[in-house]
Every structure is written in C-alpha cells, then in structure tokens.
C-alpha cells in the first residue's frame, strides 16, 4: 500500500514535468518544407481477456461477458483478496457489461477475479464467472518525433525523441517508470531494419540518434524493462507518419586555375567551390562541405600526369596546388553518395608555355636594302603542341646589344621552318625572336651582323636644256661611297634610265663606268620629252643608289 501510494502521489508532479518537457517547439527542418512526423500510442493493454463467460480488464474497467441470462447482475466483484461493490453499465454489445468506472485496488498486479451471477431460470442458483484483472501500469509512447522531417546528405543522423510513460489503471494518469524506448528504423535503401534501445530519463523522456540512408520508416515501442517492481505489463508502439523523407541534391563543381598560360614546370593553384541544390522548391543551395574532390591532370600521356585530391571546407571551397609540365586539362570529380547524390564532374583547360629553340638562323642583306632571314623553331620536350602558325619576329639592333626593334613578322610552317623579309633596311645586327604565346615560351636566336657600304650619285647635270629633237644630251655626275667619309667610287658601272612623258616604265638607255674620281659622262640622244635618272645597282659590298630625277624638254 505504501509503495503504491507514493507512486501515485508523485504522478501529478511528474506529469506536469513531462508535459513541459514534451511540449517544446518542433525543430524546424533545415532543408524540408514538410511537417516533422510524430506519433503517440494509446496505452491500451495488449493482454486482454476476451473469452465469453469471463471477466477482463480494460484500463482498470472490468468487462463482464455472459452467454446466458441472469436474474440480476452481481453486485460484488472479488479480485484477489479484495471484495469490491460494483455496478454495471451496458457496453452496447449483447450480454456484455462493464463496471461504471475503473476499479480501485491498493496494489498493482495481475489478479484472479470472480463474480456470483444468479441464474434467471434456476431460482436460488448462481454461476461463478472467473477471469483475470490486469491491474498494472500500461506503457504509453508520447509525442515520439524526429528532430527533422527529412534526411539529406549532410544530415544522415536524425534524433528520435519523446517520452515513454505508464498509465495508472485507476486514475488514468501518466507516470514515469523504469523501462526502455526501443527505436526501430528501416531506410528505403536497406533490406533489413535496425533497432536501438534508448534508456529513459527520470521524467520518462528519451533521445536516440539513428543513422539513415535516405527516407526511413521509424517505429518507437515502449518496453516494460527488467524491473519487476515497476508492475508494468504489455508493450505499446507507434510508427511515425509520414515517414522520414529524403531530400535529393544535384552537385555542382566549379574550378579555376591561378594562371593560364604558365611556363612549363610552374605550380598553379586549382581552386573552386562545390555546392548541392535541393531538387524541390524552393531549390535551396547548400555548400558541399567536408567532401573529397578527386583531381587529375591529363597532358596527352597514356596515364594522368597528376593525381591528387582536395577536401572542401565548411563553405564548400577547396584549393590544391599542382605542378604542370605540358598543356592539358584538369578533371575534377566528387564521388556519388547514394541515395542523395550522383557523381559530379568538372573540367578546366590549362595552357602551358613549352620551351623551344631557334636553330639555323641566317640573314642576308641585299644591295636593294632588303633583308631575307630564315631558320627553324624546334620543340625541346616530347608531346609539345604543333609549331605551325607560331609567330616569329625579325628584329634589328644597330650595335647588337641594345635597342632591338621589330622590323617584320613571319609564321612558322608545320615543321617549324620560317622565312621573313624586310625592305629598306640598314647595316646592323639581326635576330629572330619568338615572343611567348599561349603554347610556347619566349626565345631568341643568335644575332648575325649584316652590313653594306652606302653609295650615292651626286651632281647630276644634263645639257643642253631644252634640247632639239635628235640632238645629243650630255649627262654628268659623281658616284660616291661612304667609308670614313663620302669618297669617289671609281670603276663602277652606272645605268642611264629614261621614262617618257605619259609612261610609267623606266628604260635603260646606256651604261657607263665611273673614272677614278667617281665621275661619269653619258651622251644619249634626245628623242622625246621625259625624265632622266642615273641608277647604280650596287655590288656584293655596296648598297644600290639612284640620282635625283631631271626632266628634259625636247623640241
């Protein structure tokens, strides 16, 4: 009696604590716009005695079932050593009555019980109806729920919480007891369920983390436990509905390199961010944190030149340094995480400037001031890109050390060979220069010196002017070349050129040789109006030159 009284006196206070503990606000799912599933059991006994002609218990209410008529219903109920006055009310089922309220006993237990029922057709006779009254605490699951309505790749562990209490058979009030909350769950991708026993706190509450793989079905069962003094019998279970949902995600990878192009052998930083997007409205984007990103670099070989990995941070960002020797591309991949994510890939092109050489560079400087140069580009590393179309500059310097300027540009053929020409050039130093491109590095050839002596024709004089048609003209002048100063250049042939008025073509009329003082004299006939000029074609060591033009009027 004392034990039962103490237990019942605690009921009101503990029930208030329990209600306060279980009435907290639901945790808002971070990525699911659905209601957090929850459930509660009724606490009905699972060990009912429903045979006809017997007694049974239903939450402390005794049910009487008869298969024959009686004069009157029994007014006393014998339970164990107790005799209780009772009155009955119909249940709505034929020949079935129940006590008009829960019976009151001074101790929990499962007791044998009987009543004497007078028979209507046999005056003075009665029948004893026997049964069992289950006057024990009935387990109840209250407000079982998960801390989120759906699992996703970043939230695979959910916490199942609630309370397991016992319902007093007389007062109907809930009270804590010693027992367990057994959590059973089965993920949509698994063929077998899992179970875990969660101990109850002093107020009957429990909390049990479980790891799921996608959506899951979760059931909470109230178990009596192993303490016989608790006087708890039967079990009660509830299944969370709707079931825990699954949030699918689409992974997105982006990447960039710190520089492109870079020289062969340089170290670049590959960086980017990985995210995943919910595949349902409102399509929330989340960082893909703590994941390994596989990184490979392909540069044309049969196997990847580099294989490495990077781990994403809390915001989904990652960074990894890679040394590159040849142009190629990075491939990035995140592993599938069933059933939430599939594989995801990204590619980034990396331009690498390969080394090359310039061989066989030669140049000639013509008497006409035209430079013709040529040579060959050659890649110095295997599997280098093709050379066709690579630009090559022809550069000039007066002293071969400073002041290099570009005078012409050419393009290499498929085999790397190139030829470049430039007009109106002076004596000096020449070299080929391949400026850095997206595929090859900067490179210059050897420099070669090319020079010729400058020449000029001065003091051109034509007499008489005007002149009578058919008469002889006298043309005189001086050919000089520049050594330490302008000096006479004898022994050289010069040509007398004429262009008739209205014509665009120069014609050679005659040639003469300069004397030791560089002077020359020519005596052509005047046939029509036109312009005269003296032309020196140059030689292997001298530039060509031409005199000033002189118009002659022929009458």
Describe the 3D structure.
With 555 residues, the chain is mainly beta. The protein has four domains: 247 residues, no CATH class; 104 residues, Immunoglobulins (Immunoglobulin-like, Sandwich); 95 residues, Immunoglobulin-like, CATH 2.60.40; 98 residues, Immunoglobulin-like (Sandwich), CATH 2.60.40. Helix content is 4%, strand content 49%. The protein contains one helix and 46 strands. The strands form twelve sheets. Strands 1, 10, 12, 13 and 16 form a five-stranded antiparallel beta sheet that branches. The radius of gyration is 55 Å and the shape is rod-shaped. 32% of the residues are buried. The N terminus is likely disordered. InterPro entries: TAT_signal. Keywords: Signal.
The radius of gyration is 55 Å
Secondary-structure class: mainly beta
Poorly predicted regions:
1-34, 44-53
Discrete helix count? 1
Sheet with the most strands, sense and barrel status:
5 strands, antiparallel
Distance between the termini: 159 Å
Tell me the domain tally: 4
Please give the share of residues in helix. under 10%
DSSP strand count: 46
> Mean of the pLDDT scores?
87
Beta-strand residue percentage? over 45%
So what's the overall shape? rod-shaped
List the helices and strands and how they pair.
Layout: H1 2-22, E1 38-39, E2 54-58, E3 61-65, E4 76-79, E5 82-85, E6 88-90, E7 96-99, E8 109-118, E9 126-135, E10 138-146, E11 150-151, E12 157-167, E13 174-175, E14 180-187, E15 194-199, E16 205-211, E17 216-223, E18 236-239, E19 245-246, E20 249-257, E21 262-263, E22 266-278, E23 285-287, E24 292-298, E25 306-311, E26 317-324, E27 328-334, E28 344-350, E29 352-353, E30 356-365, E31 371-379, E32 391-397, E33 405-411, E34 417-422, E35 428-434, E36 443-444, E37 448-450, E38 455-463, E39 474-482, E40 486-488, E41 493-500, E42 507-513, E43 519-522, E44 530-536, E45 545-546, E46 550-552
Parallel strand pairs: 11-19, 21-29
Antiparallel strand pairs: 1-10, 2-3, 3-7, 4-5, 4-8, 6-7, 8-9, 10-12, 12-13, 12-16, 14-15, 14-17, 17-18, 20-22, 22-23, 22-26, 24-25, 24-27, 27-28, 30-31, 31-34, 32-33, 32-35, 35-36, 35-37, 38-39, 39-40, 39-43, 41-42, 41-44, 44-45, 44-46
